[in-house]
């Protein structure tokens, strides 16, 4: 848990992470590597002002496999990662933009769970970042529910500042 005194460790969560099975197939390892590369590109552009929390989000979609990842970094350099595999039906596959919205939503939900109310948000989806700031309209019918939910989440923060990180 992150609070004004720093990060408090939850032994149950540590045990759950340690008990997770390691990926044993090439397919599962590749899923982790995609997010690792994406976060590596983002961290290379990390703001080093060191005075506020930063959130990085990214999504990966290929051949009906979808993964999203979020990394929260405290002013003290503590890292809080989250990675999720998403499932969509074959009849209604997700677009890359939907996956990017899902990643941003996961990041904001995670921050709210940790009682974070202000932070910098970094992502490589120019579309998501510009739409949430109201610079671009959300025209795609499939994205409208995601955008509406993201606006609700954004309304629960005191201050969010967005930075687009161009894809490498």
From TrEMBL:
Entry GO MF terms: nucleic acid binding; RNA-DNA hybrid ribonuclease activity
Domain of life: Eukaryota
UniProt-listed InterPro entries: RNaseH-like_sf, RNaseH_domain, RNaseH_sf
Pfam families linked: RVT_3 (PF13456)
Domain RNase H type-1: 49-168
Protein name: RNase H type-1 domain-containing protein
Organism per entry: Vitis vinifera
């Amino acid at each position: 848990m992150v609070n004004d005194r720093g990060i408090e460790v939850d032994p149950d969560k540590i045990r759950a992470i340690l008990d997770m099975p390691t990926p044993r197939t090439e397919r599962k390892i590749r899923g982790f590597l995609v997010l690792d590369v994406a976060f590596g590109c983002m961290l290379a552009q990390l703001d080093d002002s060191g005075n506020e929390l930063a959130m990085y989000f990214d999504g990966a979609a290929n051949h009906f496999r979808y993964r999203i990842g979020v990394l929260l970094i405290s002013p003290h350099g503590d890292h809080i990662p989250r990675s999720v595999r998403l499932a969509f039906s074959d009849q209604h596959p997700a677009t890359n933009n939907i996956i990017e919205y899902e990643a941003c939503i996961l990041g904001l939900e995670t921050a709210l769970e940790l009682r974070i109310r202000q932070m910098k948000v970094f992502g490589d989806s120019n579309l998501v970042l510009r739409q949430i700031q109201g610079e671009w309209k959300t025209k795609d019918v499939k994205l409208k529910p995601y955008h509406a939910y993201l606006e609700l989440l954004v309304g629960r923060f005191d201050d969010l500042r967005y930075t687009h990180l161009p894809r490498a």
